[in-house]
Amino acid sequence: DEKGFYIIRPGAPNAMQGPISILDMRGSFDLWVVRRAGRPAEDRVAVKQALEFSLQHARAGRKGGPHDVDAKLSYGSAAYDRWIKAMAAGDESGTWRVCFHYYRLRKLAVMFLAEAEQRLDPKLSPLLKEARAHYEEVRDSLSPVADAFAEGKKPIPFGEPGSFHAEAADKLSSARDAEAKGLAALEKITAAL
Fold first, then answer.
1. Residue 90 and residue 129: Cα distance in Å, rounded?
2. I want to staple 67 with a disulfide (CB 3.0 to 4.6 A). Which of 60, 114, 166, 176 is the partner?
C-alpha cells in the first residue's frame, strides 16, 4: 500500500508482517505490486496490447531490437537455440527454472488465446485458433522437459543409458519451431486488431 510492502507467505514466521520499506527488505524475494484498479480497457485494446508486449519481448534479441543481441542474454528463438545447444551437450544448469517458466507461460498463453477468442469478434476466431494450436504444441513440447528437469529432481546423468538430454533437446527444438509459427500468428492477430 502507500505505506510500504507486506510479507505474504503462508507459514512463514513473518507472514503478513508490514508495512516494510523497500529499503529494509533483505535477501531475494518476489515483488508483487498491487494497486487500485482503474477502468478496464476494451477487450480488443487489452488483447492487442498484450500481444504487442509479447511480440516485443520475443524480438528483443534481434539486431536493432529493444535489447540488442548480447552474449549474456538471449530472447526469442536465440534463447531456445542456446538452451538446445546446452541441453545437447549435457549442460542442464538452470533448466528447471527456465523450463518451469517457459512451460507455465505457454500454458497461460493457450488459456489467454482461448479467452480472447470468446471475447473478440468471431471474424478473428480462425487467427486465434491458429495461434492457440501453435502454443498448445509449444506447451506440449515443453511439458516433458519441465517434468524431467523439475526442481529437486535428479535426472539420469548426461551420456548414461536412459538420459533424457537428447530427447529434451529435440523437444526444445519442436517448441522453438512451434513458437516461431505462433509468433507469426500473433503478428497476424495484432495487425487485424
1. 36
2. 60
Q: Which residue has the cell 509459427?
A: 181
pLDDT in tens, 19-53: 555 555 555 555 555 556 677 789 999 999 999 98
Cβ pair 135, 110 in contact under 8 A? yes
Query: What cell was used for 122?
Result: 468471431
Average pLDDT across the chain, whole number: 79
> Closest by alpha carbon to 124, among 48, 40, 42?
48
Which single residue is written with the C-alpha cell 477487450?
43
- Tell me, letter by letter, the H, E, C secondary structure of the chain: CCCCEEECCCCCCCCCEEEECHHHCCCCCCCCCCCCCCCCCCHHHHHHHHHHHHHHHHCCCCCCCCCCCECCECCHHHHHHHHHHHHHCCCCCCHHHHHHHHHHHHHHHHHHHHHHHHHCCHHHHHHHHHHHHHHHHHHHHHHHHHHHCCCCCCCCCCCCCCCCHHHHHHHHHHHHHHHHHHHHHHHHHHHHC
96 contacts 147 by C-beta, under 8 angstroms: no
- pLDDT tens-place string over residues 82-126: 888 888 888 877 677 778 888 998 999 999 999 999 999 999 999
As a whole number of angstroms, the distance between CA 99 and CA 144 comes to: 10
